[in-house]
C-alpha cells in the first residue's frame, strides 16, 4: 500500500465547474479536475503521493489519517 492511500480521496461532479473534482481534504486544500472521473482519480493519487513524498523529504509531519486501521 502506498502511504497516500491511507487518506480519503474524493472525486465528484461539480455543476458549477462543469467537470469532475478530485480532492484529498485531510492533506491539502486544493485538488485536481478533469472530464473523466477515472483519470481525475489517477491524477489525484499522483498528487497525493507527491505531497506525502515532499512532506517526508522536508520533515513535515503528516496528519493522522481519519480512517486508518490499527
Under CATH, the topology can be stated as Double Stranded RNA Binding Domain
Helix and strand element order = EEEH
- CATH class category: Alpha Beta
The major sheet is characterized as: 3 strands, antiparallel
Basic shape: elongated
Number of domains: 1
Number of strands: 3
From the alpha-carbon coordinates, what is the Rg to the nearest angstrom? 13 Å
DSSP helical segment count = 1
Task: Quote the beta fraction.
Answer: 15-25%
Question: What structural category do the secondary elements indicate?
Answer: alpha+beta
Helix-residue proportion: 25-40%
Mean pLDDT: 92
Assembly state here?
A: single chain
Low-confidence stretches: none
Q: Record the strand order, biggest sheet.
A: 1-2-3
- Indicate the CATH architecture: 2-Layer Sandwich
Distance between the termini: 14 Å
Question: How would you portray this structure in words?
Answer:
With 70 residues, the chain is of the alpha+beta class. It has a single domain (3-57), classed as Double Stranded RNA Binding Domain, CATH 3.30.160. It is 31% helix and 20% strand. Strands 1-2-3 form a three-stranded antiparallel sheet, covered by helices on one side. Strand 2 (19-23) and strand 3 form a beta hairpin. The two termini are 14 Å apart. The mean pLDDT is 92.
Amino acid at each position: 500500500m502506498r502511504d497516500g492511500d491511507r487518506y480519503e480521496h474524493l472525486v465528484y461532479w461539480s455543476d458549477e465547474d462543469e467537470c469532475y473534482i478530485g480532492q484529498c481534504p485531510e492533506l491539502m486544500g486544493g485538488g485536481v479536475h478533469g472530464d473523466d472521473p477515472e483519470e481525475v482519480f489517477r491524477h489525484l493519487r499522483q498528487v497525493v503521493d507527491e505531497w506525502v513524498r515532499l512532506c517526508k523529504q522536508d520533515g513535515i509531519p503528516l496528519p493522522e489519517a481519519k480512517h486508518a486501521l490499527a
